[in-house]
Structures are given as C-alpha cells and as structure tokens.
Amino acid sequence: MQERQRVIITTDMEVDDMNSIIHLALYLNHIDLEAIVYTASQYHFQGDGIHTLGEVNPHWRTKGVRSYECAVVPREPDPEAGALRRYRPFPERWIENLWEREYAQAYPNLQANAQVAGEPAFPTPEELIARTYVGNVAFEGDVREDTPGSDAIKRAIMDDDPRTLWLLSWGGMNTIVRALMSIAAEYVETPLWEDVRERVYTKVRVLGVMDGVGQDNSWKDYGEPLFPKLQLLRTPFPYGRYVDAKSAQPDSIELFRAPWPAQNLIEGNGPLMERYMLYGDGKIYENEPDRFQFGIHATLDWGWPGVEPMRFERGDFMAEGDSTTYIPLLDFGLRGAGDPSFDTVLGPTFRDGDTPSVEGAPMGLDSLGKPANHNVNPFLRAYQEDFAARAQWCAHKPEECSHPARIENATADCEASAGERIELKAQVIDPDGAGFDATWTVSPHSSSYREVEDLASWCVRRVQGTFTVPADAQTGDRFVLTLSVKTRGKRPCTRYSQVAVTVR
Questions:
Q1: How do the domains of the chain map onto residue ranges?
Q2: 171, 294, 390 from 298: Cα distances, Å
Q3: What is the mean pLDDT of residues 196-218?
Q4: What are the residues whose beta carbons fall under 8 Å from the beta carbon of 267, sequence distance 6 or more?
Q5: Which is it for strands 310-311 and 299-300: parallel, antiparallel or unpaired?
Q6: Among candidates 26, 62, 19, which has minimal Cα distance to 44?
Q7: If you count Cβ atoms within 10 Å of the first and of the last residue's Cβ in the chain, which end, N or C, has fewer?
Q8: Angle at 40 between CA 298 and CA 96, to 5 degrees
Q9: Distance separating alpha carbons of residues 74 and 63, to the nearest angstrom
Q10: Can you tell me the distance from the alpha carbon of 239 to that of 257, in angstroms, rounded to the nearest whole number?
C-alpha cells in the first residue's frame, strides 16, 4: 500500500455524518486518523447554558426553527435565531459510544480480514477513543476560546511530522479556525510569523469547505484574513448525496436503490452496520424534528422554494454527505491523494473556486434529484461494491469474505516519443484465489493529450499488453494508464495501478 494519509475530521454530527463515520470505520486502516473532533455548524450546536447565539456570533447563518416549522423555508438566515440557546443538539458521546460498543465488536473480524488482504492493522477501540475530542460545539461559528479539539488540531499542524495534514470539515469550520487563530496569536507579533504561516500553507490541506464558506462564516470572518493562501480543495464527483437513490449515474444507481443497500451493507453484517441508516428503516434520530426523521417517513422535504418533496422507497440509500472528503484519501492504488494531477476515487482534487476540467463535473456537483445521463465517474460502481465487501468483514471470518487483489511491480512512469510502444505489465496477488479480471485504460481526467476522448474505447483486457503513443501527440502531453483489477468473488473488490507516460 501507499503511505497512509494523515487526517483530522471535524463533525457537527448531522445524520449523514453519522453514516459517514460508520462507513469510515470500515476503512480506518487506510488512513492515519490523528483525531476526530466534534464541532458546531448552522445545523447543530449544543449551547453553553449561558449565552444566546446572537451574543456569541452576530453573523449566524442558521435558518433556526423555520427549517422544520415552515412549509417553505426562506433561503436567508432566520432573523429570530439570535435568541437560540441551542439548536438540534447532537447526542453527546455518540462517537465514543460507537468505538466502545459496535466498533469494538467488529474489530476482531476487521483485523483478521485486513491481515488476509495484506493491509495495515486497524486502530484499536481504545486508540480511537483517545483520538476523539470535543471542539467548539457551543454555537455556530463560535471561536471564542481554545478547546481540546482545537488544541489537537493546533498540535498536529505545528508538530514535526512532515506529512501532509488533511483537515476534513464535516460541519462548521469554527474549530479548525480556532486552531489557526491560536497559532496566529502566538506568532503574529514575532519574527517567526511568516515562516509559521508558510509552514501551514505547505503542510495543511482542507477538504469539505464548499465555495469557500462551509457551514458557518468562521472561515470568512476569522480564518481567511489570517491564512489567505490556505489550500481549500474539492473533488469533481460527489458521493453520498441524499438524492443518490434517484440521481446516481446509470451504471451505479441500482447500488443505491432498495433492496441493494439493506441486503449488501446491513443484513448479516453485525451491530456496526446495523447502526447504518437508510430511508424508511424505522430508526429514530435523537433531538431531530419530524422533517428530518428520514427513517420514519422516507421523505426528503427541506422546504426549499420551488423544490417538491421527494419520496423514497423503504431501504433506499439515505445519505453520507461528508464521505466525499475521506474517500479520495483511501488507498485503492489511485495516486491522487499524493499528487493532484492523478485520479482519486472521486476524481482529481482541485482548488475550491476553480472550475474543474473534468467532463460532466458541473452536473455531478450541482445535481439535486436530476437523473444523471452518463457515467462521469469511472470508479463509482467499483467503490460501492467494495463498500459491500468491506461491510461483510465486520461480522465474518476471512474465509467467508472477499478481499481485494494486490498489484505489485507495475510498469513505472516513463517518457516516450510519439508513435512509441510502451510495454505494460504488473504482478497481481489474489489472496482468495477466486480469479480476477484485469483491464488497462486511459484515464481521461488526468491525461493531458488534447484528443484523449478518442482513446475512450482503448483498453487491454489482461495484465500484460502494450500502449502506442498516438502519432500526433505533442511534447509535454501526458497519458495516465490505469490498470483495474476486479476480483471474481461474490462481493467483488477492485484495485488500481496508474502509470504516467509523458511525451518527450
């Protein structure tokens, strides 16, 4: 496996965040989880027992009680929300309880299956509890003081670990911003300030802050003025939208529609996956009003002007709105986490505010219930299948489960001339012995050849083969050749290797 990415997660514990955490638990050995931190947002805050929202944050964005009392919810913030002392508070210790109970029960089987797959060990429940912190949860956008969560983020930013530090914002940015404010307060009046700021720019990457805002105004109000060059990144393709059972791309939509999610993700896979939520599954969400009880009424009605309520089938995929941030960092053999010029499972990362060059990306980013008309993400179906195979690990011994093949000794990156033939090869290790299918293709999203669409039908359906650089390729053109290896088990798993060929 490649070097694991170092990650800190901040979450406001929205219902879809809970699903994202359960899903992430199956892949915790793919990342180095430094910390997971409770934070606040415009959708959830706990209060401090003393103040109101308006006393703490004059720039709130919450729609307050209008979000669940009004038939049509105005797009602007609720002017009365300043009087709120708490808002849709999340269950305290939800994450720690998950580690102590359901994850602890799944842990032995997860560990045994990882060993068969040749993957790193999973963190123990005790290690995860020690890495779980309470951040700035009192109010939306609350950056008044340091918290254990903001201190953990600050320590990780300022330590000597040279690896990239990924900060994944699943709620408001306020706990991350508080950490940045504390760093600035310590150094801004010293000769070290510019060096410290450059260290932050070099080390830190943020995923999850859409359109430079996120789920509160703390970044715009406090963070960006201090660290204007901090890299906020995003990916072109989504995962886990509330509407995926109606609008996922055609080659994958059946894996988001009932009965597939219940049959493949939940049934027979133990207590951890039993916590995973689907539309109409009967689960109750603590402290949530009726409008957001999707387990009861299976209806998505956010009260948005001009948007009709959407009714789902019982057992449809519900949501994982924040899995989009960590899925790109998982090691499936795609190289995008370490180098943004390559793919991730959700496409190449790009700076927030830029326009991605990926064909079909705007539809993927902006769709709300609009059916997809083509398969813009070539990795989505394989990823959902892998999720199902991984879910089975939670409650079954290795001999009952499917495991991914390992790809080793693949063709190295190289330079070539127009018209030159490149020998493609790799070694595939199949731990289950069930057999596999191998295919080489050209990745259109990370190749720079101007006629790359003409290569869409090119493939080699075996581990070894050749690729001929097009005769009209220009100096500097790049072709990313992706080897996909899909096992033939009942629950197939797919892994990749990517080779870059640059025209000299």
A1: 5-49+88-234, 402-503
A2: 24, 5, 26
A3: 94
A4: none
A5: antiparallel
A6: 62
A7: C
A8: 80
A9: 8
A10: 14
Token pair, residue 103, equals 């994850």
Q: Is 127 helix (H, G, I), strand (E, B) or coil?
A: helix
To the nearest 10°, report the CA torsion of 144, 148, 152, 158.
Answer: 50
Phi/psi for 272 (5° steps) reads -65, -50
Is-contact 405 426, C-beta < 8 A?
Answer: no
325 phi-psi bin (left φ>0, alpha ψ -120 to 50, beta other): alpha
Q: What is the pLDDT of residues 146-171, one digit of tens each?
A: 999 999 999 999 999 999 999 999 99
Confidence of residue 366 (pLDDT cuts 50, 70, 90): very low
For residue 354, pLDDT over 90 is answered with: no
Q: How many residues does the chain have?
A: 504
Residue with tokens 């997809």: 372
CATH 2.102.10.10 fits 402-503, yes or no: no
Collapsing DSSP states into helix, strand and coil, what is residue 200?
helix
| Residue 94 host element (H or E) | helix 94-98
CATH tag for 5-49+88-234 (out of 3.90.245.10, 3.40.50.720, 3.30.365.10, 3.40.50.980): 3.90.245.10
| CA-based nearest residue to 166, from 238, 235, 236 | 235
Nearest residue to 139 via CA among 62, 56, 66:
56
Cα(113)–Cα(119) distance, integer angstroms:
9
The angle formed by the CA atoms of residues 492, 496 and 501, to the nearest 5 degrees, is 155
**What angle, 0 to 180 degrees and rounded to 10, lies between the N-to-C axes of helices 193-203 and 174-187?**
150
Query: For 13-57, how does the pLDDT look when each residue is reduced to its tens digit (9 = 90+)?
Result: 999 999 999 999 999 999 999 999 999 999 999 999 999 999 999
C-alpha torsion sign, points 287, 289, 292, 297 = positive
